[in-house]
Specification:
The chain is mainly beta. The chain has helices at residues 16-28, 114-118; strands spanning 39-51, 54-65, 74-88, 91-101, 133-134, 143-144.
Length: 145
């Protein structure tokens, strides 16, 4: 996937990196040596469904910090992304991304499996018609539904 379809790609977080690092230190604290906690963000199980020149993706994420007992890893939060992409001049661009976080009341996902809604074309409530190509992570690669 290429850059975003609209402006804003590669921007610093709101308020800049210094504010972001200060927020992380405020939320996660410091390690035993007084340094800010090391935080890592992981993405897993990407499921991308291509519908002609549009696509929907669902990607799970979680974050791990070294602020557990004895400097051990601790999962801080988890959720998933709901992405919409569009092919522009032969390149895939992000149109939108919704971020769901299971630790924030206003960002909770619903009870349904998020991947199911990715099978529907953008702007449609219908199931993905043939030939819908799934790029869900599989050992055999892309599949046609």
């Amino acid at each position: 996937m290429g850059a975003r379809a609209r402006s804003g790609a590669g921007r610093n977080p709101r308020g800049g990196w210094g504010r972001f690092k200060a927020l992380i230190a405020q939320v996660y604290g410091k390690d035993e040596t007084g340094k800010p906690v090391a935080l890592r963000h992981f993405v897993t199980n990407p499921a991308i469904f291509i519908h002609g020149d549009t696509a929907k993706g669902r990607i799970y994420w979680f974050e791990v910090a070294n602020n557990g007992p004895g400097h051990t890893p601790l999962i801080g939060s988890y959720g998933h992304y709901e992405d919409e992409m569009r092919k522009v001049d032969g390149q895939w661009k992000f149109v939108s991304r919704k971020i769901f976080n299971e630790q924030l009341d206003d960002r909770l996902a619903g009870p349904e499996n998020p991947v199911r809604s990715a099978r529907e074309p953008l702007g449609s409530n219908a199931a993905c018609p043939a030939p819908c190509i799934s790029l869900a992570s599989t050992l055999s690669g892309p599949t046609q539904d």
